[in-house]
Amino acid sequence: MAKDPIKKADNGTYYFRANLGYDTLTGKQIQKYQSGFKTKKEAKTAYSKLLVSKPDEINKEKSTLTFKEYLDTIYKPWYKTQVKESTYDNRKYTIDTRLDYFDNMLIDKIGPLQVQAWQLELSKKYGQNYVRSIQGMFSRAMDRAVVLGLVKSNPAKVIGNVKKLKVKVDFWTLEEFEKVISQINTDDYYEHYLFITIWLLFMTGLRFGEACALQWVDLDFETGVLDISKSLYYKSLENYKFVEPKTKASVRQIVLDEDTLHELSVWKNIQQKVVKTDFILSYNGTPSNKHAIPRAIEKYSKLADVHRIKIHALRHSHASLLISLGENPLIIKDRLGHEDIETTLGTYGHLYPNSNYEVATKLKGLVKKSNAISSEAMAVKSNYPIKLNIETLENNAIKMQ
């Protein structure tokens, strides 16, 4: 049974995509999209009319598909199948609110001039790196439109993106971390939960989703080995699930230090008396959410008179700590779960400010030398005496003049 070509959009209107064979000159498939029909009957009538149209008549028709209609009915349903659910949910808001400049424009009428004007408007409101990410989303949407034959070329690529700025990595030093945790009262059960969460993130460099997904079965207290094989997608208290980690390299094992193992052991004993849960970072049986910890960081950093950082900066803090201890970048790469060493060095390379001086210090006195007592070796090679008196040199100079 053939699928019904008429679809209903989120706004209650109807649309369709008609496959009308192939262009005899280019060999490309001819597709036409029409939307905005108030009733399904109207859409069916327009669809039937297209099917009996001649190819030259079809090609002469102007597009009536607006950019918003394209996003809602064509692009977003496809894009949702291409990325992780969490990625789609995070980016959907940006797509809906930052690309709305083009909403009422016909998709095949969006040109470099319109894109440049939009880019300049964004640059007045947001930082360069954020503008880059927004334009990247727009460019991907237009790339798909090119593939589908809705537009001839991608105007975003004609304009180019704004220049990327090197972002300074924010982190807490060991001393700052100590000041913050000294403000947490671990005699209070909930505060103890906040303490162990902040401690674990600082001492392991785990991504927040990785840490939230940790279960007690993932930790071997005898060997100190922690298995990281999943991440947590948290949407609400009732809606969360395990998902694949960010990259293949994210699946890894790290060994915890004795202090962290001790803190986790103490926490487990206290936690299990209150609630039976498999999650390490939980005080009520459900995993941590992304709202409680930022509030805690803000509260305790203010009490400690330490600058506030974001959750992800605890990961940077761990990397900074390892660098300050002189740890090998390859070890840091594996511990953080980076795909390649370039990511590690590109992110944290600037935290080695004195490396050149350290190398120079190590090279000092490394080479042992002794001076030759005569120049006989050079004299033999050149077959003429090395020593020339000053008078000879002066006479030769006069002759050359």
Give the overall form. Answer: globular
> Helix fraction?
40-55%
Q: How large is the radius of gyration?
A: 33 Å
Task: Catalogue the unreliable spans.
Answer: none
Structural class: mainly alpha
Order of helices and strands: EEEHHHHHHHHHHEEEEEHHHHHHHH
As a percent range, the share of strand residues is: 5-15%
Number of strands: 8
Distance between the termini: 104 Å
Report strand order across the widest sheet.
Answer: 1-2-3
Biggest sheet record: 3 strands, antiparallel
| Helix count, DSSP H or I runs of 4 or more residues | 18
* Mean pLDDT over all positions: 84
Describe the structure using short key phrases.
401 residues; 8 strands; 3-stranded antiparallel β-sheet; mainly alpha; single chain; 10% strand
Written description of the protein model:
By secondary structure, the chain is mainly alpha-helical. 50% of the residues lie in helices and 10% in strands. The chain has 18 helices and eight strands. The chain has helices at 40-51, 55-60, 67-79, 85-98, 112-125, 128-147, 155-159, 174-181, 189-204, 208-213, 258-274, 292-303, 312-324, 329-336, 341-348, 355-363, 376-382, 390-400; strands at 6-8, 14-22, 29-37, 219-220, 225-228, 231-234, 240-243, 252-255. The strands form three sheets. Strands 1-2-3 form a three-stranded antiparallel beta sheet, covered by helices on one side. Strands 4-5-8 form a three-stranded antiparallel beta sheet, with no helix packed on it. A hairpin with a 4-residue loop joins strand 4 (219-220) and strand 5. Helix 9 (189-204) runs antiparallel to helix 11 (258-274), helix 9 (189-204) crosses helix 13 and helix 14 packs across helix 15. The longest helix has 20 residues, at 128-147. The radius of gyration is 33 Å and the shape is globular. The termini are far apart.
